[in-house]
# Entry
Amino acid sequence: MVKKEKDSELMEKIVSLCKRRGFVYQGSEIYGGLAGTWDYGPYGVALKNNVKNLWWKKFVTDREDMYGVDAAILMNQNVWKATGHVGGFSDPLVACDKCKKRFRADQVAGYDLKEKKGKCPECDKGNLSEPKQFNMMFKTHAGALEDDTSVSYLRPETAQGMFVNYKNIIDSFHPKLPFGLAQIGKAFRNEIAPRDFIFRTREFEQMEIEYLIRPEGWQDTFEHFRSEMQNWTKEIGLNSTHVHELEVPDADRAFYSKRTIDFEFDFPFGKSELYGLAYRTDYDLGRHSKESGTDLIYLDEEKKEKLTPHCIEPSFGVDRTVLAILCDAYTEDKMNDEVRAYLKFTPKMAPVKVAVFPLLKNKTQLVEKAREIYKNLKTEFGGVEFDDNGNVGKRYRRQDEIGTPYCVTVDFDTVEKDQMVTVRDRDTGEQERVEVKELVAYLKSKLS
Ligand code: GAP
# Structure
C-alpha cells in the first residue's frame, strides 16, 4: 500500500547507516541515481553472501535431493510466451491527472478497483486514471538485429531457468521423485513504483527451489517446506514474532497455484511480503512440454508409469532478507552514559566476526602482536578486521555499528606479562581476559 511510513524515522536511520558504513548505496548515485536500483558495498556484499551461502548449505548441500543450477538470465522469448509472462506478467498502472505520478492501483489505499477511480496519494489533489495493464518484463534484443525474432527479456524470476533444465537434470543424474532444482540469481522487474529502499527494486536476487513431486500427497511436501522456511527465518536471526504467515485467498493467488502462503515480515513501513510458498501443480512443466515440443515427463520405473511432475516452490528474495535482517538487528541503547546505535546481527550473518586492535597504534610491539593475532583469526573466520584508528572506545563504536560480535584488544600485559587479550562482547559490553592460545577455540564457541 502507498502510505505514510509507520516508522519512517527508523527506516531513515537504517538507510543512512547502510550508506555511511558501506552496506548499500544508491545505484548510479553520482548521476542522480536510477530509481529502483541499489549497489551493495563491502559490508552489504558480505551480509548478502552470508545469506546466500547459508541458504545454499541448508537447502542444497545439506540435502540429498537437490540439484543446483545457474541458468542464463537471457532466455529464448518462447519461454516467457509459454508461461504466460509475455501476455500476463503485468500490474495495473494508474496515473494522477494533476501531478502525473504513476502508481500500482492495487497499492493505493482507497483506490476503488471496481469503480476504477481514486484520489492521488501523493499530491492529494488529483484523480487517478482507470488502470492500464503494464508488462513488467524488461525487453531487450539478443544480437545485432533488432526485430521480433531477436526479442529477449531479462528474466523476471529465476524459476523458469530451472524448469527448462528439468530434462538436463533427468538425463545427467537420473534422480528419483521427489527431487528439487535450486538456484540463486538475479531477477528483473520494471516495477511501476519501486519503494522502501531495497524492499521493492527493479533488479534483485532470488533464491528459489522448484521441488518436483508426484501429485498425490503434495500437502506433506508443502508442510515440509513451510516448516523449513519458518526454521530459516530463525536461523538468520529474525524475531519470530515479526514473521507471519498469510494464506493467500483464491482470488489473489496466481491462476496456476492451488495453494500459496506468503511469509510476511513486520518492516518499519508495515507488514509486507518477505517470501512465498506455492503449489504450482504441473503448470510449468506442462506448458513447456507443450510449447517446446520436448516431452518433459518422468518415467516412474517402479510403477511403470509416465507423468508430468507437480511442483512445490519455496521462493525467497535475497534483498528482502537483507532488509529484514537489518531491521531486526538495528538497536539503540545506552552504554557508558552514551547513546549507541548498533546492529545486533546473529553471528552467522555478521559481515565482520571479530575485530583486532592494538591498544596504541604507535607501539610496535603491540601492533606486531595484534597483526599476528589478526592474521591467525582471519584464516579461521574470514571476516576479521584490524583497526588502530582513534581510541579503543571509538573503535568499539565503529564495530558495534556494523554489527561485529567481538573485539579483541592487545595491550601491554599481553606482550609483557600474561599472553592474554581482552575480548569485548558487542551486546553487553562485557570484557573478558582470554589466553591468546585459547582465543580461536573461545571465539569459535561464542560465534557458533
Ligand atoms: N517464482 C515465484 C516468484 O517469483 P514472487 O512472489 O513474484 O514469486 C518471490 O517473488 C520473492 O521475490 C518475493 O517473495 C520477494 O522476496 C522477492 N521479490 C519479488 N519482487 C521483488 C522486487 N521487486 N524487489 C525485491 N524483491 C522482490
Summary: Residues 42-61 form the longest helix (20 residues). The chain has a mean pLDDT of 95. The pocket of glycyl-adenosine-5'-phosphate is lined by residues 157, 159, 189, 191, 200-201, 204, 206, 208, 273-276, 313, 315, 317, 319-320 (CB under 6 Å). The first strand starts at residue 24 and ends at 26.
